[in-house]
Description:
Layout (H helix, E strand, L loop, with lengths): L4 H11 L5 E4 L4 H10 L6 H12 L8 E6 L1 H4 L9 H8 L2 E5 L4 E3 L7 E3 L5 H11 L3 E8 L8 H20 L3 E8 L7 H21 L8 E2 L16 H15 L6 E4 L6 H14 L6 E6 L1 H11 L6 H19 L5 H9 L1
Parallel strand pairs: 1-2, 1-10, 2-3, 3-6, 6-7, 7-8, 8-9, 9-10
Antiparallel strand pairs: 4-5
Helix pairs in contact: 6-7, 7-8, 8-9, 9-10, 10-12, 11-12
Bound molecules: 1,3-dihydroxyacetonephosphate (13P).
Amino acid sequence: MSTYTQELQTTATALVAKGKGILAMDESNGTCNKRFEKLGIAPTAENRRAYRELILTTPNLNNFISGAILFDETIKQSSSTGESFVSMMQGLGMIPGIKVDGGTKPFDGHPDELVTEGLDGLADRVSEYYKLGARFAKWRAVITIGADIPSAACIEANADALARYAAICQANGLVPIVEPEVLIDGDHTLDRCQEVTAATLKEVFIQLAIQGVELEQMILKPSMVIAGLSALLPTPVNEVATATINTLMQEVPPTVAGIAFLSGGQTNEQAAAHLNAMNVMFPQAPWAVTFSYARAIQQSALDKWCGDSANVAAAQKILAHRAACNSAASVGTYTVDNDRQLALV
Ligand code: 13P
């Protein structure tokens, strides 16, 4: 038993508490700047700080959000009152988390495939983040679907890195969020996505076992099983829910503390409706099934804010609404009608 066993267990359980999910707000400076630039917002550290303050001071956010994943810059920043974001979150009962991967790089020898880097010095960085107040971490691996990809080599390299990251986190007090994202980009069918997702998850759990990762002390952050964005026909909501949960039931041991999906480019309503259908149709699933969304919670609020302090309250209202909708979806009480009606209020 590690020094942290009890704490890791408590954190993992709290992250997927009933009616709550995780807010991903850990965009790297590069990704955040790209989203800012699309809206004409200057890509400065102060604007990134102001935007993260807008998010974390949203009234009632803590009713729906158990924890938020921060980027390295953000975990060291403070609100305009001078209080650190970490301390603010702790006061509100939201657990601070941290992105620790170093981003994706081309996977040498494998055109169009990516591998996530960042294991060098990771133990030291994780213990530093623990001292700063983080209690969980995230590492995102990316699997691309194409004519002849993903390769077995790409799946294995990414699964190996995810497992080594997870073991390092647990040894140093952070609950690992293990995120193998099968990209939604492309025109692949739902069946193809299911095949790739199953192969990826199988390898991830093989590697997690090899590294001795405690499944009760980790959260899986998968993508949903869904047809590609440019596929001809959209998939009905119940089919996505069924294919996703069946794949997870087949590949994910029941002892994993929880499942928290990424939104991956789905619309706000799709992300909520799919999560909701899973909770309505599969109440017997062995894990809590909730969200760890970035775009499906944040993007509409960012569009509203647009870098103008006059829009903060309106943007926060939108953010709280999206968080509330996904909280409802995590317990199977979301409806698109309610979503639209409440959005108008
Ligand atoms: P999206 O919900 O926007 O896919 O982001 C989730 C995430 O944290 C990606 O790593």
